[in-house]
Amino acid sequence: MSPSYDVVVIGLGGMGGAAAHHLSARGARVLGLERFGPVHSRGSSHGGSRITRQSYFEDPAYVPLLLRAYELYEDLARATGREIALLCGGVMVGRPESRTVAGSLRSAERWDLPHEMLDAKEIRRRFPTLTPDDDEVALYESRAGLLRPENTVAAHLQLATRQGAALHFEEPVLRWEPYRDGVRVHTAENTYTADHLVICPGAWAPRLLADVGVPVTVERQVMYWFQPRGGTGRFVPERHPVYIWEDAAGVQVYGFPAIDGPEGGAKVAFFRKGRVTTPETIDRTVHDDEVTAMAEHMARCVPDLPGTFLKAATCMYSTTPDEHFVIARHPVHPESVTVACGFSGHGFKFVPVVGEILADLALTGSTAHPIGLFDPARLAAAPARDSSERGARP
Ligand SMILES: Cc1cc2nc3c(=O)[nH]c(=O)nc-3n(C[C@H](O)[C@H](O)[C@H](O)COP(=O)(O)OP(=O)(O)OC[C@H]3O[C@@H](n4cnc5c(N)ncnc54)[C@H](O)[C@@H]3O)c2cc1C
């Protein structure tokens, strides 16, 4: 007879790990199935740091979820003793009318979030590592900062295990099907049955969730670490904030303080300048021309950052046509399957609250959290995102 569970979770990365934790915390008998090992670097949840912020330029509808996520970062740190969030402050920089600045201000005002507007002179005075043009401004948010993605994933897996969840690694799901009132899930090792299935496949969504009707485009993204000129002293979190910086052409870069000691450098990356790829074919090599392009871009806004190139790593975005997430009961199998995908390069800061929402949806069919924006029906008729205009290497 197949082993039977209340809920099977496919994918134990950021979202699936959080789901396994919240489901098992509520007493569900959970099986988690993961293609790779625990806390791996072949999906979307690695690289040492992720930005978190509340004045959300993408849409004010995300703010209530962020307020809850911040509470959950603290719970997670307390329950596991791990460093989850480092709220060192952050600046959203650009021209006043840029999406980064105007959108952040809109969310801050809509939700009455603590923030300050800084002109170029004030940015340079407060953060001497940053050199904005005279017509650039910033929204400063003291509660912005960074998350430690590997610690976050490990913490969720640790709690899930402690609460009795069975987590199987190196056991990819080959296929699943509706079975009686629930589902049947097949791996090379076994066949499992469950009342409910939660699918959190990250960049494997085009394969695992083809029948959801959501066009998800997988993009290769590169993270770069540089040792700043003059060392990391001026780049520590007390002096150098996280930032997202939009230039006149609409190109956004984002970066972090030096958090890995004097030799670890500081990380920077382009937000959305990725090439379309797949998890099977992604080019994991970072090429010299990419490093040069990044260094040249940073020379204008954080001139001391591109001192010495240290290393780079690739990661994948799973992008929907409108860059909003998909979190819902499965449109074809609403009774027995819940899905979470298409986090479009900005999902990590929501990881704990997505876990809570997935537990709500899986166990009760609904959630009190506002997730209307993430309904897959909005994308049913949309064509896959055309990345050709952004497909060139930066
Ligand atoms: C370079 C980069 C920078 C980013 N920066 C930020 C940031 O600053 N702030 C922010 O909020 N977000 C950021 N993001 C986005 C964020 O990291 C992602 O939205 C988030 O990690 C996605 O989590 P996930 O659970 O969907 O995917 P993953 O963590 O990749 O998890 C999916 C899991 O499913 C597993 N899986 C797939 N298929 C199967 C199968 N058949 N059987 C079993 N397991 C399977 C995979 O192995 C994987 O472990 C960034 C992403 C990247 C790549």
From TrEMBL:
Catalytic activity, reaction form: sarcosine + O2 + H2O = formaldehyde + glycine + H2O2
Record keyword Lipid metabolism present: no
Enzyme Commission numbers on file: 1.5.3.1
Keyword annotations from UniProtKB, A to Z: Cytoplasm, FAD, Flavoprotein, Oxidoreductase
Residues that hold FAD according to the record: 6-36
UniProt cross-references to InterPro entries, sorted A to Z: 3-OH-isobutyrate_DH-rel_CS, FAD-dep_OxRdtase, FAD/NAD-bd_sf, MTOX, SoxA_mon
Cofactor: FAD
A GO molecular function held by the record: N-methyl-L-amino-acid oxidase activity
Entries under Pfam families matching the protein: DAO
Predominant place of localization: cytoplasm
Entry keyword Flavoprotein: yes
FAD dependent oxidoreductase domain mapped to chain residues: 6-361
Comment on bound cofactor: Binds 1 FAD per subunit.
Domain of life, per lineage: Bacteria
Subcellular location: Cytoplasm
Modified residues (S-8alpha-FAD cysteine): C315
PANTHER family: FAD DEPENDENT OXIDOREDUCTASE DOMAIN-CONTAINING PROTEIN, PEROXISOMAL SARCOSINE OXIDASE
Complexes and interactors: Monomer.
Task of the protein: Catalyzes the oxidative demethylation of sarcosine.
Family: Belongs to the MSOX/MTOX family. MSOX subfamily.
Name the record gives this protein: Monomeric sarcosine oxidase
Species annotation: Streptomyces albidocamelliae
Organism classification: Bacteria, Bacillati, Actinomycetota, Actinomycetes, Kitasatosporales
